[in-house]
């Protein structure tokens, strides 16, 4: 630094020029105002937040679901995990989760410190695919038919579901399916087990028709698929005898019957007689009544006998070649007997078998067979009699006609009612075309049993027969404590159901009790409470004889019924109470495709009456009849009004019941026997008219 520019250190300091700072101070003052506002706002927010925090309550939202849920709450809510801070009040809560229904609810928040709400979401249906072998299987879920397989995308509510799969000719399949839900796909695949077994058989010669339960199903040799159960197998081939065997078929268990050797068919003799209705025996064995067809074993002669009461017996030897057919008519020669008619008034007209014979008293030579006699005159009640002339012995018939009023008072009532309210109808079988008929069944009849031997019978006595089976209510008037029981939860004990679980002795004792109550002579002889015999001349109540039962059930004009509904099996409509599809879990065996609406016994008279106004003769419950059980002889001797032995160990049961379904059991010629009570056996009452 030059001396010229240096200042004197001792010289006084001079103040600098002064400039006021007013503008700068104003600028600084204007920058402080926004800061204060920010601080104030922050303080306000802090106060509000602190006020919210100090006054808010904690709410825990718990959502029960398998998938992540999204929760939406209306209004101000501060989330902290599953907890939310909210002021007291009502809030709308919405929840969404994959696989679940949308959920809406309202939650009320109180001023408590800690609260919780559990929300249970409802899962969406599951998506189930059902596949089976075979296809076309019916799918039932909880008892509702949802379609036939294959079924895809079947929407089922979650949880345990009872699934049943049904297909014709296969065993039903049942299982519990745990449906996941939430639209989770599931698949059910089932191979149904066949309800059949393979049956292998051949025949010698081959080519025979194979029938199972009466239906043609194939030709030998073959392997068949036969549905499980009791089956009747038959082979048929022209010019050969039918072959038959009963089989028990178990599903999945094959059977090999090997080769069945068929026998040459018997010759067929088409036999008629003049008059018809003659008894026929072949080699001493009763075959039936003309007209009929006889099977003649080829290769040897046979003794043929044709006879009828009132006619000479015809005998000859017959022989036919195998499968030969021959028609023959036998003319029987009548045996005559004299009958002297003493008739009053003398102007009355006498008719024999419907043909006028003149007026008043006279003597006639008539064939020694039952003759229907009628004496009539205007203003008088006609008299009908049955007279059987006897060769070499004159008979006397005396008839005095009564006025219509007199006859009406004396005649038996066509219908009577017991003290218990039971209705009985009067029958005159002697006046019917089937007064003489053949009981039993031909050996050629499908289902025929060995105890159904053909034998000739006749009914000459008029009798009353109850229209229905005895009911529980009626029997309890005799024995108040009787209980017919139940089976598989189905009652047999209701008032209008037929009484069951009674022995033959109890049925006979009931009949005697009712006879005494009405002042009738008891039919059954009783010692110390045990039935030991019967009085055939009594008009007291009893069970119908087997012959009366068979006539009442089978007689139809001038022919005999095979089944209650006619000749063809099975029935096409519900005509009687049998083991139908609803009874399968009780009876095991059922009549396929048959529905009668009753698992066990039905109230009496639930089905249409027969042509004779009788109910349930062919079904509902089987029935005790009067006769001691025996197998008839095939000697061809005619029995009139048979009553059987006075006592025995077993008694005859006739008719089918709610537990029966097979062709053998549903035929009206079917016979059973026993002594003790059963859950399908009851009875009805009868009595002689005179």
From TrEMBL:
Location of the Sulfatase-modifying factor enzyme-like domain: 436-687
Assigned keywords, A-Z: Membrane, Transmembrane, Transmembrane helix
Domain PEGA: 86-123, 126-192, 196-256, 268-332
Transmembrane portions of the chain: 37-63
InterPro entries xref list: CTDL_fold, PEGA, Sulfatase_Mod_Factor_Kinase, SUMF_dom, SUMF_sf
Protein's recorded name: PEGA domain-containing protein
Lineage, opening ranks: Bacteria, Pseudomonadati, Pseudomonadota, Gammaproteobacteria, Cellvibrionales
